[in-house]
Known about the structure:
A two-stranded antiparallel ribbon has the order 1-2. The protein is mainly α. Helix 1 (8-26) crosses helix 7. The mean pLDDT is 86. It has 15 helices and two strands. The relative contact order is 0.23.
Amino acid sequence: MTGLQLTRRQYYALCTMVLLSPLLHLVPRKTTAEAGCGGWLCALAALVPLLLFAWMLEGILHRGRPGEGIGEITLRALGPVAGRVLLGVYALWFLLYSAFALRIGAERFIEAVFPLSRPWPFVVTILAMAVCGALGSTKALFRASEIFLPLLMLVLALVLVFAVPGLNVNNLLPVTVQDLPGVARSGLTVFGIGAAVLFFGAFTGGRTPGRGRAAVWWCVRMCVLVTLLSAFAIGILGAELTAKLTHPFFTMLRNVSLFHAVERFGALVIGLWVLPDFVLVSMLLTLAVNCLRAACSRDGRLFAQKNPPALVLLCAAAAGAGALFLAQNAFETDALQASVVPVVNIVLLGVGTVGMYLIGRARGKI
Length: 366
């Protein structure tokens, strides 16, 4: 048995934690820039494609042997050479994604709490936490997500409840037929984030009870969450301002207070958002390490052994260097995150699911 033995709650808790970090960077800023005041409908536009992707991914995993994840199925479907090459590409993808996650987490602190600071102290801090997570048991990340998620959901619920007085419904309407192409484009942004998270989770292997039905409900819940966060940010700030801000949700917090007793508690919420960053980067480092090990050894099983410390540190160094040197400032980071990363995600998701499945079926391996 190569897959991790996980409960359904642990699996989808980690998926949600991993989603929260990139979600509040691209949504609602990028979706509003694409759809205007109709940006709050982006999740509804993404729901059906996301459900179809979850169904397709579940179908591929169902054809795997007991305990196999998407990595092992890839090796079997494409053969030892092409399969290992693709696992190596996946490892680079995970490192690139983790580099952007580190940089965006750092710039979130800089913009909202510590203006004029340099990003490297925050990058190093988040990376050090993630290395500790990657060096430990992979299942511990799932348990940590199970503990952290209720706290973050409670915080989000409180934020939305106390933000209601500032919500202006007029900022959300009207949505006309001319806005529908923009809404569809914004749905592609949400789909890319959600599909990537499901794909990351598929590497862990194993089958949780009722996973197909659970995937449907997870997609629905996440789309409801995205709709609420988008509607509140656009409803309070307006579509024009939301599209211009780097982190509109956290900017919105400056206008929210708890019974007028605690003013501007955005710093507290941003501080808590280091938890999704920690889980996301730890998981990406773990996936990169396991893909590299499977690609460079005869043992093609992922998560069959403890992560080698030397390889974890090497991957962490690569991710940290990428976070510091891929972009010179927040504008370059934002441009790359908004244009390059989504395209890479969509391409690799297509290759990793449709392409791999078709080749595997043609070769009679899955």
